[in-house]
């Protein structure tokens, strides 16, 4: 019996390669078995007549041999990676290629699920803060001079909005100082309540850009909270999640990585140049309205408070690290209550 071969064409560096694959012993065995099952010429017929029929056992034997062949080809294709574009299966740390590939896929799905669960559990503790202020008008003196000072008239109007998050079940929440600055009234939208709650300013720090507010629960229920995590346990490249209200779009989640630590930036405001030190940098999208919102790690712990964004760039946002927040929290809580 003459041996047969077949070719497999593959792509390699832009060129087509033809590889000759010789028959395995399993193929040779199949050829032998099939030859034995072929009809034999009857004696005296001169070899010119075919057998008119086959027994049932012959069909069964043919089926079994064919099944062995298909299984053998499948095994050979897997072992030789005949249909894998010429690339060998990736081997994991344990050396088991197929097991490693399955493990990587499972880990990827698990990570996506974990990030979704972080948003589900952290979202209710994130609030929208609206700053209302009475319009201020400049007054001229009786004789048309520039003196006379300023006067507030009318009802409070929306001056700006931002984000905050509960860190205490009894209604204490954290945000940026610039979110609540110069407010005559603060309204906090909490998930699960039909109407915004009125908040009181407990304490604030302009230099650190931090503020603590307090709201009362209308139904006496405890508020959902977020835990202040250890930013020192977060490394460059770790996943981080920002939740806030960018441009009034409530409870928006953005995802990125921790890009850098210890950044220093300067922002011009009404009081001059405000220098921020020791900030976290992230490429998670942060926009106007995200200020005061939490920057979370994969466990849902607060590692920073979203504070600023570089308006001339993409993917460059900044957050106050949780270590700074923890150090300032006692002073903020014990500050002299604001009256408004």
From TrEMBL:
<dbReference type="InterPro" id="IPR001940">
    <property type="entry name" value="Peptidase_S1C"/>
</dbReference>
<keyword id="KW-0812">Transmembrane</keyword>
<feature type="transmembrane region" description="Helical">
    <location>
        <begin position="56"/>
        <end position="77"/>
    </location>
</feature>
<protein>
    <submittedName>
        <fullName>S1C family serine protease</fullName>
        <ecNumber>3.4.21.-</ecNumber>
    </submittedName>
</protein>
<dbReference type="GO" id="GO:0006508">
    <property type="term" value="P:proteolysis"/>
</dbReference>
<dbReference type="InterPro" id="IPR051201">
    <property type="entry name" value="Chloro_Bact_Ser_Proteases"/>
</dbReference>
<keyword id="KW-1133">Transmembrane helix</keyword>
<keyword id="KW-0472">Membrane</keyword>
<keyword id="KW-0645">Protease</keyword>
<feature type="region of interest" description="Disordered">
    <location>
        <begin position="1"/>
        <end position="24"/>
    </location>
</feature>
<keyword id="KW-0720">Serine protease</keyword>
<dbReference type="Pfam" id="PF13365">
    <property type="entry name" value="Trypsin_2"/>
</dbReference>
<dbReference type="InterPro" id="IPR009003">
    <property type="entry name" value="Peptidase_S1_PA"/>
</dbReference>
<dbReference type="GO" id="GO:0008233">
    <property type="term" value="F:peptidase activity"/>
</dbReference>
<keyword id="KW-0378">Hydrolase</keyword>
């Amino acid at each position: 019996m003459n041996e047969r071969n077949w070719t497999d064409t593959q792509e390699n560096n832009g060129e087509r390669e033809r590889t000759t694959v010789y028959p395995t012993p399993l193929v040779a065995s199949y050829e032998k078995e099939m030859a034995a099952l072929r009809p034999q010429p009857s004696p005296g017929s001169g070899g010119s007549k075919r057998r008119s029929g086959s027994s049932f056992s012959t069909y069964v034997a043919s089926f079994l041999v064919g099944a062995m062949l298909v299984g053998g080809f499948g095994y050979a294709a897997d072992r030789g990676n005949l249909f894998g574009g010429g690339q060998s299966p990736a081997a994991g740390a344990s050396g088991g290629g197929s097991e490693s590939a399955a493990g990587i896929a499972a880990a990827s799905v698990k990570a996506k699920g974990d990030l979704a669960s972080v948003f589900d559990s952290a979202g209710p503790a994130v609030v929208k803060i609206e700053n209302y202020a009475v319009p201020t008008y400049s007054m001229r003196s009786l004789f048309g001079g520039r003196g006379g000072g300023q006067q507030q008239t009318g009802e409070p109007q929306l001056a700006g909005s931002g984000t905050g998050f509960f860190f205490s079940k009894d209604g204490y929440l954290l945000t940026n100082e610039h979110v609540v600055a110069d407010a005559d009234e603060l309204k906090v939208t909490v998930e699960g309540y039909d109407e915004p709650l009125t908040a009181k300013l407990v304490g604030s720090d302009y230099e650190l850009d931090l503020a603590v507010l307090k709201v009362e629960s209308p139904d006496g229920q405890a508020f959902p909270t977020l835990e202040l995590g250890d930013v020192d346990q977060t490394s460059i490249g770790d996943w981080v999640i920002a939740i806030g209200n960018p441009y009034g779009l409530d409870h928006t989640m953005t995802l990125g990585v921790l890009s850098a630590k210890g950044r220093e930036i300067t922002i011009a405001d009404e009081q001059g140049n405000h220098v921020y030190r020791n900030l976290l940098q992230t490429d998670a999208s942060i926009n106007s309205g995200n200020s005061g919102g939490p920057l979370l790690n994969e466990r849902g712990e607060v590692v920073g408070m979203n504070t600023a964004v570089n308006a001339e760039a993409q993917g460059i946002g900044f957050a106050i690290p949780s270590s700074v927040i923890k150090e300032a929290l006692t002073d903020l809580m014990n500050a002299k209550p604001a009256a408004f």
